[in-house]
Amino acid sequence: GIVPESIYKNYPNYSFEYANPATLKPLLEEWPNVNFNAAHFGISNHKDYDFEDEMISMMSVYDNLYVDIGATAWGNSEGTDKTTSFIKRAINEGVENKILYASDEMVWPDAVRVSIDYIKNADFLTVQQKKKILYWNAATYLKLSDEEVASHFRP
């Protein structure tokens, strides 16, 4: 796949090395005006391939690199613990504006509410940070016009 973080480990010929965000550098540099999203903030379920440090560093360097929290905010407690840790680190490193909400839900529709509630009930986030993750960061990522944003909030 063109975005390594979107490859799942059960794909044919999958290798955990593909989850390293450094593999995105050529794309990010060749197309600086195109925003890229690293699904699930690039986490791996394998302890030897945890690229959280690399992902946060790259988010600091590349304006066009974003991450989403799809499937990590509604799964098991290990997943939500990693999500909480990542969001806190991203805030401390000044890249909270690069975190996107994503449900990543195709089978269990109730998980969408669980993942939204995870953000809404996160006591470590301010109201403004919650709004960023749930909407405003995506509006920036998608390069929505003022008119498009306004249309989402019309009575």
3D architecture notes:
This protein is mostly helical. The chain has helices spanning about 25-30, 50-60, 75-90, 110-120, 125-140, 145-150, and strands at about 35-40, 65-70, 100. A 3-stranded parallel beta sheet has the order 1-2-3. Strand 1, helix 2 and strand 2 form a beta-alpha-beta unit. It starts with about 25 loop residues before the first helix and ends with a helix. The model is unreliable at about 1-10 (pLDDT under 50).
> pLDDT below 50 for ≥5 consecutive residues: which ranges?
1-10
Number of helices: 6
What is the global morphology?
A: globular
Radius of gyration: 15 Å
Number of strands: 3
Widest sheet, order of strands: 1-2-3
Whole-number average pLDDT?
80
The residue fraction in helices comes out at 40-55%
Order of helices and strands: HEHEHEHHH
| Assembly state (oligomeric) | single chain
> Structural class of the helices, strands and pairings?
mainly alpha
Q: How many strands, what sense, and barrel or not for the largest sheet?
A: 3 strands, parallel
N-C termini distance? 41 Å
Strand percentage: 5-15%
